[in-house]
Design brief:
Blueprint lengths: L10 E10 L6 H12 L9 H27 L7 H19 L4 E9 L4 H10 L2 E8 L6 H15 L7 E4 L7 H18 L9 E7 L3 H5 L4 H15 L7 E6 L12 H10 L4 E5 L8 H17 L4 E4 L7 H14 L10 H18 L1
Parallel strand pairs: 1-2, 1-3, 3-4, 5-6, 5-7, 7-8
Helix pairs in contact: 1-2, 3-11, 6-8, 6-11, 9-10
Family: Belongs to the ferrochelatase family.
Protein name: Ferrochelatase
GO cellular component, one term: cytoplasm
């Protein structure tokens, strides 16, 4: 890095933050990923000594191999992890949108767990002259377990820097019109292609969000309320009545009570009650991943069909939907107000350097 900051342009950067993914669908890679993920005190709020014994003595030896098989079932040929592929694509296309407007904004992606690590990506942005940084989590609904944990890691890294950038962060956007419109576009595009269900005959549109222990809600985490609001706004945007759609929560783990209603038992009950056709969508996941492609598109489908359902349709996540990339740009632009987004010309840099050198001479 050039030691003289006057000799390079200052730049604005956007850092997309996501959870992470194993490097490969193998037991070894999954174990490394799970250990980092489940060691985060924001994720598991159990006394550290007790949890260390449970994690290393029971969970990692048992779950690593089983999870690796699940990852292998959704791994994309030549592309690898779906979450990584689509998250990188979102960062690339967001950067291209700024470039189309003649704006020079650095856009990159960092994972909370695994690679590319937050520390490595921030270092690369610093090398490129980043002086202003906007943190944009790919978690539309805020939770201490996701958004706050990602912010924590950024703060930890920047806490070691001598010259820190200006910093802004997007806490959440669960009710932003651009985000809701992107969700509606994704669902409506699917219905235009595959046919819209006749909800009057008992069909259901299910919105499944990632679950959290209920105690998180009771301790003040707003995630549950934000999911419900997203679900209501999307249902209304699609023109559905209250009884035609419902919000559920998936990925329950352990014996503690989690946010309800649970996705899998709800699907089973609906099928048993005579619901023959179900469309299911995961609005809280901007990119398809293990929880959507394996748990919802595969496991939940089996549950529905085994208990009397006839037609189960999984609607893919936003992924690289142009409406979603546009929404990301709108959200970012709202939080970038007042920051320069254009490249400094060589003339400006030269003049700045001349002034700096002149100031040195006067001081000397």
């Amino acid at each position: 890095m050039n030691p003289n900051p006057h000799l390079r342009p200052t730049k604005t950067a956007i850092l997309l933050l996501n959870l992470g993914t194993p490097a490969a669908p193998t037991a070894k890679a999954v174990r490394v990923y799970l250990k980092e993920f489940l060691s985060d005190p924001r994720v598991v709020e159990i006394p550290r000594v007790i949890w260390w014994c449970i994690l290393n003595g029971i969970i990692l030896p048992i779950r690593s191999g089983a999870s690796a098989k699940k990852y292998a079932s959704i791994w994309l040929p030549k592309l690898g992890s779906p979450l990584m592929h689509y998250s990188r694509l979102q960062a690339k296309e967001l950067g291209e949108r700024f470039a189309q407007h003649g704006q020079t904004v650095l856009v990159d992606l960092a994972m909370r767990y695994g690679q590319p690590s937050t520390e490595a990506v921030l270092g690369e942005l610093q090398e490129q002259g980043m002086e202003r940084l906007l943190l944009l989590p790919l978690y539309p609904q805020y939770s201490a377990t996701t958004s706050a944990s990602s912010f924590d890691e950024v703060f930890r890294v920047l806490g070691k820097w001598r010259n820190q950038p200006e910093l802004r962060l997007v806490k959440h956007y669960h009710d932003y019109p651009a985000y809701i419109n992107a969700l509606r576009d994704q669902v409506q595009t699917f219905w235009d292609k595959e046919g819209c269900p006749d909800f009057a005959k008992g069909d259901r549109f299910v919105m499944s969000f990632h679950g959290l222990p209920k105690r998180n809600l009771m301790r003040g985490d707003p995630y549950h309320c934000e999911c419900l609001k997203t679900g209501r706004m999307l249902g209304e945007a699609l023109g559905l009545e209250a009884g035609q759609y419902l919000v559920t929560f998936q990925s329950r783990f352990g014996k503690a009570e989690w946010l309800k209603p649970y996705t899998a038992p709800t699907i089973e009950k609906l099928a048993q009650a005579g619901c023959e056709r179900m469309d299911i969508f995961c609005p809280g996941f901007p990119a398809d991943c293990l929880e959507t492609l394996e748990e919802i598109a595969m496991e939940a489908r089996e549950i529905f069909l085994e208990h009397g359902g006839k037609d189960y349709r999984y609607i893919p996540c936003l992924n690289s939907n142009p409406a979603w990339i546009e929404a990301l740009e709108i959200i970012a632009q709202q939080h970038l107000v007042g920051w320069p987004l254009d490249s400094e010309s060589e003339a400006v840099l030269t003049k700045r350097n001349e002034r700096a050198e002149l100031a040195k001479e006067r001081i000397a």
